[in-house]
């Protein structure tokens, strides 16, 4: 198991792991600061997983139609982002069975968020397309989610926001690996 550590501490600080002395100010007074925290990759992965899951769940709660499930919104957002898709393409993307996806698109259709249309290439193929109401719902949900997070980020010190910006890049790399 790997250990992730903050920068090494001095010999004097190792004697007392609860505090690391630093020198500051014109009179060179000694201040005691907490020692660097050591955390294993296993501990970090657990802490990060829980934090990401909780934040994601909280952000997902901000939506324009509270009756829409997360899975239904995900399909609608995919159609908004990438355009028309077949039932099989939607099921593959969402990693669900075609019958399950059929129930999802039926609910979206009955809510007026998607319509079915025949493919121009193959009239036997049915495509699902977001309606104006579906596109508006995705835009409003994104606006609400962005606004919720923006309000919370604005309250943080600039150093913390900078740290989160760096962490977001690392998390994106992890997600893409």
Largest sheet: 3 strands, antiparallel
**Quaternary structure state of the chains depicted:** single chain
Structural class: alpha+beta
How many β-strand stretches? 7
The arrangement of helices and strands along the chain is EHEEEHHEHHEEHH
Word description of this protein:
The chain contains seven helices and seven strands; from the N terminus they run βαβββααβααββαα. With about 180 residues, it is α+β, with helices and mostly antiparallel strands. Among the domains are: about 1-5 and about 40-60, no CATH class; about 70-140, Winged helix-like DNA-binding domain superfamily/Winged helix DNA-binding domain (Arc Repressor Mutant, subunit A). The protein has a three-stranded antiparallel beta sheet. The chain has a two-stranded antiparallel ribbon with strand order 1-4. A hairpin with a 4-residue loop joins strand 2 and strand 3. Helix 3 crosses helix 5 (about 100-110). The longest helix is centred in the C-terminal third of the chain and has 23 residues, at about 130-155. The chain is elongated and about 80 Å long. The two termini are about 20 Å apart.
